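Lay summary. Proteins are chains of building blocks that fold into shapes, and those shapes determine what they do. In this project we predict the shape from the chain. Here is one chain we studied, written as its sequence of building blocks.
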Amino acid sequence: MPGRKCLAHGLVASVLAGLLLCNPCFAGKARKPKNTPATEATTATKLTPEQIEKTKPTKAGTLEDNLRLLNQWVQQSDLVNRLYTAAYKVLAAKLDATFMDVANDTDVQAICRDNGIVHFGGPMLGSVTPDGARVWVRTVRPAKVEVRVTVDGAEKTFGPVESTPESDLSAVVPVTGLKPGQRYPYRVFVDGKPIPVPDHAAITPCPRTDAPGKVRIAFGSCYHRWGIGNMRQAEMIRRREPAALLLLGDIAVQDRNNHVGLHRADYLQRDFQPAWRDLTAAVPVFATWDDHDYFDNDLFGIPKGFTREDQIRIWEVFRWAWNNPSYGFGDERRGVFLRTRIGPCDVIMVDGRFFREGRKGSYLGDDQMKWLETQLLDCKGPFIILSNGTMWSDYVSDGKDSWGRWDPEGRERLFSLMEKNRVAGVLMISGDRHGARGFQIPRPSGFNFYEFEAGSLGGRSGPPVTIPGAPQLYGIADTYAFGEFTIDATVADPTVEFRLIGEDGTIIYETKLTRSQLTPRG
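And here is the predicted shape, written in a compact code that computers can read:
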């Protein structure tokens, strides 16, 4: 991909050097391509056969595979490749290898010392609120991390927060006291030394949650290891200035089962990608997992041959690799579901992996199901984004690995609860099935739920994009694209505009709905 490499290289060369030297049948109006709703849009950017071959997934998980992925979008420097090689060897050597093992490795120590490298990843924003956000950094050894934010022309310091062996050498610094909607540049210091951050790095608190407002939220899934370095897509997301990016799983780790050392090696590959650093230094991320970044394809709970201890270790790696406001229950039950509020929109992200058992009716587990019902009835905003790692509907792959296969009664319980209680404005988002597809989910009452799937962050092909007889809105594959909601709660009947956007900014599909259209009849 010479053209893409040149583009990415030109945009990020200085940041890269700095890091490693200091370190359809549908309601509402919609504009669609002229072809049928579920066919591939000819206006979208497609992968050529050569690009598909180059970016095809590697399952072996070897050092060679990860180095190829690391250099897929931009040719990394010799220093980057040497450091990643040294760290990978440490993490691959033991099933339970940690970043502290990397910190203690003599080869890694020498490379970092000789080149002034003090951090491995970040800054990554998350947990955005109307008065601030949190800043995540992973250091090369235990250290103190500070964030200095420009407020009214002067710098204000937050922290320090220590990165420790117990936190997998990550530090999450809360930044508070800011004003919603304003942009605040920031710098990050590790043990008093500034680390490079992109020129555009800034914290922008989300709109107030207690007043009508407008907000834009991006989302998607299935980055996998081979799409996360796509600078063109990352730049497009960032330039549209969403208040947050919701990632629904299959993000960075690929089929590592209980080898948590290799889980960490995949997260390190994520953090070495210039596209990822540039994006997450300015756009707060909320993340849940799906099968590939849990154990392996279609796995859940404690898979056969693995243990509770394996499950807990994977959860710990995930917890310290992200910047969520919370992780599941916050106690020994764990999980990675969450609820937050982003401006006038409630966001609920569920975990369909950790608690599921090998029986029907166990998709979320009893406790998470009760939690979800409570949250749905408690939401106060005009819209609720409700995410699921796999699809809510059964149209794709006959519902493979989703609600319809594992817990149709539980799904009906949720749908009935929302209809009976007239829970309004629910926007269901999903992933897992490579590509992007949207559907209505018709109910016996005549009401329709809407599902927006955008499993296209990795540009991969998947199941057929056209589902005969389904109430389908759109369908694409082999195309890099992300989903986006633009919500306006300042009007009498609040509106939401959905767009599926290609990496080049092409609007592949869009539709506009009102809260009244998304309110069950009771």
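What the prediction tells us: Confidence is low (pLDDT under 50) at residues 1-54.
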